[in-house]
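SUBJECT: A protein chain and its fold
Encoding: whole-number codes for local backbone shapes
RECORD BEGINS BELOW THIS LINE
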Amino acid sequence: MKAITLHGPGDVRVESVPDPRIVDPTDAVLRITTSAVCGSDLHQYHGRVAGLDPGVVMGHEFMGIVEETGPAVRQLRKGDRVIAPFSISCGFCEWCRMRLPTQCATTGRAVFGGRFGKQYPGGQAEAIRVPFADHMCEKVPAGMTDEQVFFLGDILSTGYVCAENAGIRPGDTVAIFGAGPVGLLALQSVHLFGPSRVFMVDRVDYRLKLAEELGAVPVNLDRSDPAEQLRAQTRGRGPDAVLECVGQEAPFTQAIQSVRAGGTVSSVGVYVESSMGFPARDAFFKDLTLRMGICNARNFISPLMPLIQAGRLQPTRIITHTMPLTETPKGYAIFDRKEDRAIKVMLKP
């Protein structure tokens, strides 16, 4: 089959790799109908993730149709259309029973595409093996397009969790750092909690424009210090809650500097460095609450589906490009460089 493989910084290739097959009785093989390039894929693309196998198949966002199932799979049949989360979990270990599937002891916190733990081939391909398929796969309701449900497997669930963890109450002011795909879906999610105003902080003009269309007040961080801009627009106090959706030291620090005393900072950006600067003094003397962590997306696929069906979440708004799998290297390049007004690049085998 054709797949996208990584061979070094900036070097992704379309190659022929072995077809996936049933290895364990609980496996399913999916024929992929849609995949995508994720912002966290860029960490690997930039060479910031150590220990990857040469030629690893990229991608952890995907969905497809069941082609084959192992003998222990009971809930799925050939032809079922399903979506799976980005992280791989068994559903029965201690951590999975605690609703922390990203900490799964059985899989070693594995993620499709080989970022952590045991390396499983990713979803930027024509097909994929999904372990623990009965637990991992969610059937897609008839009448919903791939594009509508696709982001539940990762970035919509992540954006929603970022908003939920922020403890937003009706009438609060909220700021979001990062108008990328996660930040824009976090913006949609924030509106579910009834804030009075939402600010979006970024420097990319076309992304700030979309954020404005989605109900945010744009704040260009290149104009002046974002914390000062946010205080100026909140009577000097700062937002009640700040969401950090980038995963870098600078926006994380700016989020802590921006939020009001006694406020909450919620962070879901993927950090690949083992350590970074942390403004502990600022956080301590402002009496802040900090919530952060990788999203347990498996928990949110089913609960968020009806909000999409009702039109209260419209994840398709962030899609800017849909490309054949064979053009994926171009997709990585324009997404990485923010060319051609790219926000989310979808892939079709």
User: Anything to note?
Assistant: The radius of gyration is 20 Å. The chain has a mean pLDDT of 96. DSSP finds twelve helices and 16 strands in the chain. Residues 148 and 316 are 6 Å apart (CA to CA).
